[in-house]
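Handout, page 2. Input:
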Amino acid sequence: MPRGQFDLALAADEEACRIASEQGFSEWLVHPLTLITWVCLLTGRQQQARATLDALEHQAPPGSAHQGYAICLAGHLALDEGDGDRAYALYTQARAIAEATGEPWINIMLRIGMSRYHRIAGNGPAARAWADDALSFAARVGYHHVQGNAFIERARAFWLCGDLTAAENDLRAAIDLLTPLGAAFDLARAWLLLAALRFTRRAPPSELHAAWQEAISRIVSGGYAFLLEQERALAFPLLASLLGSDDPNVVAISRALLGHLARVPPPPLHIVTLGRFEVRQGRRPMEMSVFRQRGRVNCWPSC
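Output:
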């Protein structure tokens, strides 16, 4: 899973679940269920993540580290679904378990989650403070994979605060740390963010194109086109701009990427009809004007 081989990870953990169930070792189910939930969250499989998380919550003993994993992952899912209040409450609950058990992974990931929560809310300084804490904790215990994730999250906090130089330095630090680990997915994400950051700060075309080509190579080879949907606010304007590049190689790989992107399922629709009418596609609210246009068919954005 840390190497980004998600299909293999799911197959292995699903087989582990089957063996544990058949042999009556139900107490071992928490291990593969935790990893299956995490992989599903990373790859945008929210429905499967929710179902697996329900099973994990039934298996994890109260107050145990595994309950802490489940609660922290539930916080990640709540953020993915746009429920910040629930995410905050879950991370607070996970923190109590993390401090009681001393489990490093929960301590680090809940801090990354809190940083993301504040970043989504637009509070750059708070996002940076939580990311700083996550990074310090990860460095102290030597968890290099999650340390790389903490660098990526702090880069985004710096970006939100307007410090683009510090943001780029952190993305480069994440890349340097994750490359020896072969963390393919996290490297694809870091390079994509680096390309988007260089696009934002109007870096020289050579720097922008180098980062973009590296990102696309990793996304395509790893099968991570779903990452573009997850980072659509950054990735789509960048892709649209580079389709008009003067560099034929950049245009060619950008056009090829469209084919991979077309095969990514759009986020599920969430419709509220009690008390108000609201439609969200993933975390993104849809404009009501879409539904007021008469005679239009198949007008869903990104479907």
